[in-house]
Each structure stands twice: as structure tokens, then as C-alpha cells.
Design brief:
The complex is a heterodimer of chains A (166) and B (190). By secondary structure, chain A is an all-alpha fold. Chain A has one domain. In chain A, 82% of the residues lie in helices and 0% in strands. Chain A has 7 helices and no strands. The longest helix of chain A is centred in the C-terminal third of the chain and has 30 residues, at 98-127. Chain B is mainly alpha-helical and 190 residues long. Chain B has one domain. Chain B is built from 9 helices and no strands. Chain B has helices spanning 2-14, 17-24, 28-54, 64-92, 94-98, 101-127, 139-161, 175-181, 184-189. Chain B is elongated, with a radius of gyration of 20 Å. The A-B interface holds A 23, 27-28, 30-31, 34-35, 37-46, 49, 55-56, 58-59, 63-64, 67, 70-71, 153-154, 157-158, 161-162, 165 and B 30, 33-34, 37-38, 40-49, 52, 58-59, 61-62, 66-67, 70-71, 74, 153, 156-157, 160-161, 164, 166.
Chain lengths: 166, 190
């Protein structure tokens, strides 16, 4: 019930008024959201596929992990900002949307997983002489983490698109 | 003349059973569109990394030619899926899409991005490996990368705008918009 009040308040906010009133701005922000998704997806793919040994295999894992994490954070920031603006236009609809709930759960999982598990594990594995093959990090832990990461961010993107269909 | 031909083609496609089936399907259209959007992460994601490297904003410790060479294949796979799903989306709603001003701008931007990509590849080959370890690519390649980012951003925004009906032919609009959007019947009725 309290959550509904938050969505009702958001629906009446100045940000929501702006998102509803200016269609052209809304489309531009949607564009920023999609471009951020592309940037975020590219960084996730490059990092995960590198740790799976499928992409950029001749580039040090440490370099790929560091570069992709930096730009991932930029993309995530842009996605959250643009997504918040977009939500203002349909705040009450989103409250009742199961797909929106699915996306938010997936997004929260993705953020916690990225910064709490994937990042530390990949950095640890990347610092070892042969990433994951020897030392303290299990190669299977690294691979499973990469696959889980790909699945989570696929879910975020797909459920986000399906909000529009629901 | 060209608008008439394009509209005739669109109406012919629209009359096909498969076009109607895809448009009216419960899940197929949504999944095709979802795939089209998700492939952005593969195609544009890889393209962003290459362009950011050329501009000296990412992966600066890795030779730019290595980044471009290694990411080319996944980028082109993503591009192929995007083109395939994009054609399917056009096939599902051919008449409205043909007469969408946003779709027309998107196609122009796509052509421009394609030409830019061809020029970029030619310049990349011509530049050789001598600069690969520098943090920024030569000026001509940087311009190509910046242009690439700008054009593809335009493609994404205009692609998203196709969903909106602000300039659809059935609405009262200035004659020049009818002309640009290819609203053949509305122009004839003026």
C-alpha cells in the first residue's frame, strides 16, 4: 500500500508532468536509455566473453575487466537517470505491471551481482597469471559467474522491452 | 513517382498473409521486436567499444587495431540479426512504416552510417599498424569514430520515434511533411 503512495506521488511530480507533456523530449530520453543499454550490454558482453575465453583472448583479462567496469558504471548511471524520467510518464501503470516488477528485481539483482560478486571475482581471477586456471580462483566459478551475468542482463533488457507489450 | 512506387510495394507486402500473421501474432511480433532491440547490445555495444578506443576514451593500453579486429565478428553478427529482424518488422507493418517520416530519416542515417563505416574501414587499412599503440587514433579515424557514434545515436532515436503517430499521414499536416513522409493519397487530395 505504501509503495502505491510512492508511485502516486511520483505520478504527480514535476518530473512526471514534464515526461507527459513533452513528447519530443520523452523520445530523446528513450533514445538515451536505449543507447545506454547498448553501451552497458557491450561492456557486459566484452567482460563476460573475455572471462569465458571467447573474446579478446589476446588482451590481458585485467585490462578488459577494468575498462569494461568503468564504462558499465557510466552506462548504468545514464540508464537509471533516463529510466526514472521515462517512468514518470506512466508511473501508475508501472505500479500494476508485473513486467516492470520483473525488470526492477532483475536490475537490482544485476547491480548487486555486478558490484558484489562478478567484479571482485573477475578482478581476483584477472590478477592471477593465467586467469582462473590456477591459484585461488576456480575457473568454473569464473565461467558460471560470466554465464549468470549474461543471463541476468538479458533478463533486464528483455523484461524492460516487454513492459511496453504488457 | 518514387513515393508512389514505394507505397505500391508496401501495399503489395501488406496484402500477404504472412505480413498480417506476423503483425497480428500474439508473441512472434513482440519477440522479433525484442530481438531487434536486444541485438543493440551486441552490435552497438561492440561498435561503441571500437569507437571509444579510437577516440582514446577506453582500452587505451590495447592496440586499437587489435580491438577493431577482435570485435568485428561479434559486431557483424549482431548487425546481421538487427537487419534480419528489422526487415521482419518492416514486413509486418509495411504501409505505415513506408509513410513514417522517422523511418525515412532512419534509413538516410543508416545509409550515411554505412558509408562512414566503409570509409572508416578503408582508412583503418590504409593507416596500417604504425599508430596502433598510441592512445588515440589518427585524426581522420577519430572523426570517423565520432561520426559513427553520432549517426548511430540518430538511428536509435529515429527508430524509437517510429512508434509515435505525430506525423502519420491520416493527420492534418503541412504539405511538406506529406511530401517527405510520402503521403501520396493525402497529397493528391490537397
Amino acid at each position: 500500500m505504501e509503495l502505491l503512495h510512492v508511485f502516486e506521488w511520483f505520478d504527480q511530480s514535476l518530473l512526471a508532468d514534464a515526461a507527459k507533456a513533452y513528447g519530443g523530449v520523452f523520445v530523446l530520453v528513450q533514445g538515451v536509455h536505449l543507447l545506454s543499454l547498448a553501451l552497458l550490454g557491450g561492456m557486459v558482453l566484452a567482460g563476460d566473453l573475455r572471462m569465458l575465453g571467447l573474446l579478446l583472448t589476446d588482451v590481458p583479462a585485467r585490462t578488459v575487466v577494468a575498462a569494461t567496469q568503468r564504462w558499465f558504471s557510466v552506462a548504468l548511471g545514464l540508464m537509471v537517470l533516463s529510466g526514472t524520467f521515462m517512468s514518470g510518464a506512466v508511473a501508475l501503470k508501472l505500479y500494476y505491471s508485473e513486467m516492470f516488477l520483473a525488470k526492477m528485481v532483475a536490475l537490482a539483482t544485476g547491480i548487486v551481482f555486478f558490484y558484489g560478486i562478478r567484479g571482485p571475482l573477475f578482478r581476483l581471477a584477472a590478477d592471477e597469471p593465467t586467469a582462473g586456471a590456477a591459484g585461488t580462483t576456480s575457473i568454473w566459478a569464473v565461467r558460471l559467474t560470466a554465464i549468470a551475468s549474461l543471463c541476468i542482463w538479458f533478463t533486464v533488457a528483455a523484461s524492460g522491452r516487454w513492459i511496453g507489450f504488457s | 513517382m518514387l513515393n508512389g512506387l514505394l507505397l505500391d510495394l508496401a501495399r503489395w507486402l501488406d496484402g500477404q498473409a504472412w505480413s498480417t500473421a506476423l503483425h497480428e501474432s500474439l508473441y512472434a511480433y513482440a519477440w522479433v521486436e525484442t530481438t531487434h532491440v536486444l541485438t543493440l547490445m551486441v552490435f552497438l555495444g561492440m561498435l561503441f567499444i571500437i569507437d571509444l578506443r579510437m577516440l582514446g576514451w577506453a582500452f587505451t593500453s590495447v592496440p586499437a587495431t587489435t580491438i577493431a579486429a577482435r570485435l568485428d565478428r561479434p559486431m557483424m553478427i549482431g548487425f546481421a540479426v538487427m537487419v534480419g529482424t528489422g526487415l521482419a518488422l518492416y514486413y509486418a507493418i509495411p504501409v505505415r512504416t513506408t509513410q513514417s517520416i522517422w523511418f525515412r530519416i532512419k534509413v538516410v542515417l543508416l545509409i550515411a552510417a554505412g558509408i562512414n563505416a566503409l570509409l572508416f574501414r578503408a582508412r583503418l587499412r590504409a593507416a596500417g599498424d604504425t599508430w596502433g599503440h598510441e592512445s588515440r587514433a589518427p585524426r581522420r579515424l577519430r572523426i570517423g569514430a565520432a561520426l559513427s557514434l553520432t549517426l548511430w545515436a540518430g538511428v536509435v532515436v529515429t527508430g524509437r520515434a517510429i512508434a509515435y503517430d505525430w506525423f502519420d499521414c491520416h493527420k492534418p499536416l503541412p504539405a511538406w511533411i506529406y511530401q517527405v513522409a510520402g503521403c501520396v493519397d493525402e497529397l493528391a487530395a490537397l
